[in-house]
Design goal:
The chain is α/β, with parallel strands linked by helices. It has a single domain, classed as 3-Layer(aba) Sandwich (Ribose 5-phosphate Isomerase B, Chain: A), CATH 3.40.1400. Helix content is 49%, strand content 17%. It is built from 6 helices and 5 strands. The protein has helices at residues 12-24, 43-56, 71-77, 91-101, 115-127, 135-149, and strands spanning 2-7, 28-31, 61-67, 85-88, 105-109. A 5-stranded parallel β-sheet has the order 2-1-3-5-4, with helices on both faces. Helix 1 links the parallel strand 1 and strand 2. Helix 1 packs across helix 5, helix 2 (43-56) runs parallel beside helix 3 and helix 4 runs parallel beside helix 5 (115-127). The longest helix has 15 residues, at 135-149. The radius of gyration is 14 Å and the shape is globular. It starts with a strand and ends with a helix.
Length: 150
């Protein structure tokens, strides 16, 4: 599974730390930008790049986006087909989103999330399976996918 990263200037430093931790654990990561700190860049291009990659293979890829409030990235990425992103606040919430809703993108608010909590959320995001054996979760995600395909 490939983990696609994207971050603007406000999320850049946290993204770099999260990415390094995953590389150290042996994950395959792809950084879709910003790859250097660009003080006046705009988040939509990075969110779009991550969404496009995940949309091609949503079952075998995940995305992690980081910006200041998290809102801009999350709004942008959720406009793409087959993307289900959660704006993470706590690891328990991220667990529920992965387990119940099969989210494939985690968006993190760098201005409001310390590195330890961000690392916990990423770990939970990548280790929690979707509960596809629970009929109501499968039915609900299926309805979201139908919306994507309409």
């Amino acid at each position: 599974m490939t983990i696609y990263f994207g971050a603007d200037h406000r999320g850049f430093q946290l993204k770099e730390k999260l990415k390094a931790a995953l590389v150290a654990k042996g994950y395959e990561v792809a950084d879709l930008g910003a790859t250097t700190l660009v003080p006046d860049d705009d988040y939509p291009e990075y969110a779009a790049a991550v969404a496009e990659h995940i949309g091609r293979a949503p079952e075998v890829s995940r995305g992690i986006l980081v910006c200041g409030s998290g809102a801009g990235m999350d709004i942008t990425v959720n406009k793409f087909r087959y993307i289900r992103s959660v704006l993470g606040f706590k690891s328990d919430q991220v667990y529920a989103a992965r387990h119940d809703d099969d989210v494939n993108v985690l968006t993190i608010a760098a201005d409001y999330t310390d590195e330890d909590e961000a690392q916990k959320m990423v770990t939970v995001f990548l280790s929690t399976p979707f509960a596809s054996d629970v009929a109501r979760y499968l039915r609900r995600v299926g309805k979201v996918i139908q919306i994507d395909e309409s």
